[in-house]
UniProtKB/TrEMBL annotation:
<dbReference type="InterPro" id="IPR050678">
    <property type="entry name" value="DNA_Partitioning_ATPase"/>
</dbReference>
<feature type="domain" description="AAA">
    <location>
        <begin position="3"/>
        <end position="194"/>
    </location>
</feature>
<protein>
    <submittedName>
        <fullName>Phage-related regulatory protein cII</fullName>
    </submittedName>
</protein>
<dbReference type="InterPro" id="IPR025669">
    <property type="entry name" value="AAA_dom"/>
</dbReference>
<dbReference type="InterPro" id="IPR027417">
    <property type="entry name" value="P-loop_NTPase"/>
</dbReference>
<dbReference type="Pfam" id="PF13614">
    <property type="entry name" value="AAA_31"/>
</dbReference>
Amino acid sequence: MISIAFFNNKGGVGKTSLVYHVAWMLAEQGYRVLAVDLDPQSNLSIMALDEERLEALWPDVAHRETLFGAVEPLFGGTGDIRPAHIEPLSDALGLIVGDLALSRIEDDLSTEWPRCLEGRERAFRVTTSFWRVMKEAAWRHQADVLLIDVGPNLGAINRAALVAASHVVVPVAPDLFSLQGLKNLGPTLRLWRDTWLQARPKASASLGEQPGGEMAAVGYVLMQHAERLGRPTKAYAKWQARLPHAYRESVLDEQAGPTGPTPDPQQIQRIKHYRSLMPMAMESRKPMFALRASDGAIGAHQTNVQQCYDDFRDLVLEIARRVKFSRGARQ
C-alpha cells in the first residue's frame, strides 16, 4: 500500500493546502486517490467540504462517518475497527473525514506504543488501527495512492499515522522555524522507524499483516516562497539556501557540507504563495488551479491559475516518479 504522509512538526507552512491540491491534481492526472485527515483539527476536511456537510458528519451524537468513528469501537472497548466512510469528492478522489474527537485517543496510543516491544496484542491493534482502517478503505476505493494529512506535532497520533506511512514528504517554508523543525523531525522519524522495526517481529501471527513503517523520505516541497523577477526575494533567499543542508543532515542523516548540488535533488518542487487565488478557491470549494472566470479568476488571475496548474502537475508527476506508483497499480 503506497501511503504518503505530509509531515512537518512546524505549523503554518501550508501543509494541508498542499495535501488538498496534490490530491486533486493526482485525480486530475488519472490516479485514484484516497485522502485521509488524521489531524484532529480537521483542516483538510474543512477545506474540502462545506459547513452543511460537515454539520451532518459531526452530529451531536456518535460520529460514525469520520475516522474517529472507524476506530472508536477499539478505543472504547466495544470491539475492533469498523470500515471507514469514504466521502466522495470526485469519481477518483475520496476522503476519510477528520474529527476533533481523535484527540481523545492520544493517551491510549501513547500508553500502548512501548507495549508493542513486549508483544502485547492490544498494543499492536491500537498502534496499527489507522493503518488497518486505511488499508481496507484503499482496497474498497481501489486507490493507487493514499495521502495522509497530520497535525504539526510529534505526538502519539502522528506516530501511529507515520507507522502507517510508506513514504514521507516534508513541506517547508524558507524561514528559521522550518529549519528548526527539520532538526526535530529527522531524528524523531528515525526513532519511530527503529522502534517499530524492533517491535514488529513480536506481533502474534494471529494478528495478520503488520505495516512496514518504512517512512521513506521522498524529499521536501518549498512552500510559499516569494520571487521577484524569477529569483527568491532577499528575505527568503538566506533560509532557502540553508534548507538543503538541513534536510540532508537532519532527515537523511547524512554528513553534508554547507553546499551541495544545484538544483537540490531533495527538493521536489517549489510552490508559490498564490495569495490572490486561495480566497477564491476556498469560496468555490475547489483547488486553485481549477478556478474559472465564473469563480472570479479573471485577468491576471488566469495567468496565476495556469502557473499554479503547471506547478502542481509537475509536483505530482515527480512524486509519482520518486515513489514509483502508477495508474491502476492498486494494492
